Fold:
Amino acid sequence: MSLSNIIFPINFYHQVYGLGSETDFIKVNQNLSYILNLVFEKIEYLVLEIGFGRGDFLLQFSKDNPNYQIVGIEKSERLVKEVAKKLERNGINNVRLIHSMADFAIHFLIPYNSVDMLIVNFPDPWPKKAHLRRRLINPNFLKLLYNKMKSEAKIFISTDVEKYKDYILDSVEKAYNQGFHYKVSRVFLGFWDEKYQTKYLRKWLKQNKKIFSIEIIKK
Ligand SMILES: C[S@@+](CC[C@H](N)C(=O)[O-])C[C@H]1O[C@@H](n2cnc3c(N)ncnc32)[C@H](O)[C@@H]1O
Structure:
């Protein structure tokens, strides 16, 4: 089975463009719409899911929304390969996977003004004070993402960690104060739709943990 039509590896541009130097790399970055157009025939509504894990959400969501073009970004190569196989077995053709750290992929592969929706289900919590900077959602991440999102695009995040929920709300405020105008439009207890059972959602529901969900709009 060939996975090459699904996996979008970090060295994708080296393969496609045969690039050799960092200068070439930056040149490609100036017209990123190229890259997604190479992997999707047409982009109507672009959704990113970061940290898709075993892909439960990605699989169901892509089946339910065949008109969306969905890009999954995951740092674990094992999980990318596992989910690529599941997508292929299920005949899903509106998803592409990027094996990369999210900030790298967003910076180098996602075009400006292209993202309609971003989903992050249960990001790693990094609860220790010394590790807070490792949290995926932070002011710098929101700034990096800002120009990649369309106006009125939405970010959906769920976490089981109340302090992470507060940290995300603070991050939105910090980014806003620096000119990156996001607005928190909803914060509630529970998950968006329990039809989409992810591995971690199942785990936390079993343990009767509270789940916090946040919707953010890019203004
Ligand atoms: C706690 S798991 C949640 C998995 C899945 N969303 C779920 O709900 O079952 C976090 C996932 O995010 C991935 N991840 C963590 N940091 C990441 C990053 N910076 N870029 C891409 N993926 C990341 C991890 O490898 C892991 O699969």
Q: What stands out?
A: The first helix runs from residue 12 to 17. The mean pLDDT is 86. Strands lie at 7-9, 46-50, 69-74, 95-99, 115-121, 149-159, 182-189, 212-218.
